Amino acid sequence: MKAGQREGRRVLVTGASSGIGHAVVVALASEGANVIMVGRSQERLVAAAARLDEPERHRLVEADLADYGQVTEVSGVLASERILLDGLVHCAGVFQPGAFEQIRPDGLERTWAVNARGPFYLTQALASQLRDGAGIVFVTSVSAHVGMAGQSAYAMSKGAVESLSRTLAVELAPRSIRVNAIAPGFVATPMNEGFRKVPGVAERRAGAALAGRLGTPEEIASVVTFLLSNEATFVNGATIHANGGYPIAEVQRNEQGMNSGAN
Hints:
The chain contains 9 helices and 7 strands. By secondary structure, the chain is an alpha/beta fold. α2 links the parallel β2 and β3 (59-62).
């Protein structure tokens, strides 16, 4: 969509203060949308909004989506102001890698609460405030599709969200509400900064993708805005893989190695 083509539309974005979430906010705002920015820190939300051209057009809502009470408060605020939504984008997430045997109950609970339970409850709370014909996008992960050591809890939570998105696509179809997911590959964001600092990790992940590099939040945001647009009206119940061709490059190298040693 071009600038101004979302004029007057309202879209709620979680995880709006950084990473992919903020990139989605910037992209939507540049097209004229009024964005309801949801995040855990009011200070960070204010700083993120200040980077937009017209920050006063957007609404900031501080909420920890792992807390059911705060989820319902978000819905209550919008309902009290009779705000209807044209789109809902779930970007908020936590990434706490660790060996399967070492994952503690509190770590698993936090991952599940933010990545899976929060999106479930928020969508449920806001369903009546979505306009007919609205779009919902869940940001998941390549980890839900490719087994990776140290990501059992994270992968489980993202796989659950993809299953949720397909079910919601069926249930909300009578209202012409489309529900899709996007599974990014390795994208350089603050959430995985610690992981990327481990020697060799970023290089190996980049080398395993056909793109030969990590992705950017802006590249993922462009797919999200497409899924919310009128150009994607025939896309529903799908997962879009925006992963730079990961792990195809790694598979290709392994196959070439086997072929070169064949008799």
